[in-house]
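Input record, target 12 of the design panel.
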């Protein structure tokens, strides 16, 4: 089988290689701004499906995997920060509290959607000082990550507790995706 990961994320590529060592990356050009949903779980799943279906239309002979990760705190969906102030705002919102990291998944094969699902992980941050936030923003790490942090990088020191899949927080719930692919005889 030919596998395509419909994602520009280097972290997702690294994690997907744990399931499929050989695959291509094709980044979707779908307009994500038009997607809305009733809940964060529906939103990340719809975004993953949009990306996946966009790529699958052009590659009907492949198994295409789409994923989208969002962070949700107090009902607010936190995507990638727009700038330094937005990153600091997000980190202040997450400081000393729990939040949810959700990754939507979509698998297409033969040009058709095989399944969609999502994974939800609760993360608890320690209370962050203004200088910790400023130093982390200064590091540049927050800017290409939902919720303005990478748990696998410098934000690891802020994480007090995780309830759920660690790899989901990084950007791809490896076990869930692997089980979905096995369930549908795609590996």
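The sequence produced for target 12 reads:
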């Amino acid at each position: 089988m030919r596998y395509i990961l419909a994602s520009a994320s280097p972290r997702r590529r690294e994690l997907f290689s744990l399931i499929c060592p050989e695959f291509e990356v094709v980044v979707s050009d779908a307009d994500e701004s038009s997607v809305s949903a009733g809940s964060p779980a529906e939103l990340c799943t719809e975004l993953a499906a949009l990306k996946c279906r966009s790529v699958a239309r052009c590659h009907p002979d492949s198994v295409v995997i789409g994923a989208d990760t969002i962070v949700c705190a107090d009902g607010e969906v936190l995507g990638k920060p727009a700038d330094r102030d937005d990153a600091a705002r997000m980190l202040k919102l997450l400081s000393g509290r729990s939040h949810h990291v959700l990754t939507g998944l979509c698998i297409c094969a033969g040009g058709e959607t095989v399944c969609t699902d999502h994974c939800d992980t609760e993360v608890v941050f320690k209370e962050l000082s203004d200088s910790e936030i400023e130093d982390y923003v200064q590091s540049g790490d927050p800017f290409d990550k939902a919720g303005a942090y990478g748990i696998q990088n410098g934000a690891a020191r802020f994480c007090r507790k995780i309830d759920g899949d660690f790899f989901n927080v990084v950007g791809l719930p490896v076990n869930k995706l692997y089980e979905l692919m096995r369930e549908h005889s795609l590996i």
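The helical segments are 10-16, 40-58, 84-94, 130-139, 166-170, 174-183.
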